[in-house]
Amino acid sequence: MASNPMTQFEVYKIGPELKFGGFDLSFTNSSLFMVLSTLIILGFLHFSTSNKKIIPDKIQLISEMLYNFIAKMISDTAGSKAKPYFPFIFSLFTFVLMCNMIGMLPYSFTVTSHIIVTMIMALFIFIAVTVIGFFKHGAKYLSIFVPSGVPMVLLPLITVIEIISYLSRPISLSVRLFANMMAGHTMLKVFGSFVLSLGIVGGWLPLTFSVALTGLEILVAFLQAYVFAILTCIYLNDALNLHH
Q: pLDDT tens digits for 199-210?
């Protein structure tokens, strides 16, 4: 019998149970892969920048390409005012990308397939961008809910729509990443189960689909990290430049 494809998303505790003030702070498999993703990123950046050369080797070249990719993304979407926020956007993109890519390995765990993880990141971005907007513009930041050039008769309706759209940012940002990663991994598990149940004779077709889906899921893993980062840049652009 094929295994349940949803068991791959189960969170379980590793080590002793830790509770503080009614909160369960136990170390889990999700925590493990977050730490692992962070250590891999730090290790890669350390080794790629510790011995810089005029003619870069492959690992330094990848690091420089990644730096230029994020720098251009910020410049194109949020402008020069967003340069001080480069470290945050860079960290956000690399962390989400690494979590997505590690989740593609057999017997690993996909951190970003859990709504609680993506929602916490999205809420942090939403609150941070809102604070930045009010810090930069004060009460004038509220004008983001009043688009210019709208007829007065439509202004109340448009303002309500703008407020709802603004407040829904963390929901759309988190659900997009979570849903794509969970759906893709579920499909991979389902087709993998078909291969095992049908055997050598009948399993070639689902195996072909599994290979194709794996390639597609790797692409999705990168695209979802990119979308998460670029939407953050767009929200930051609204806060810094007050476009409305």
A: 666 667 777 777
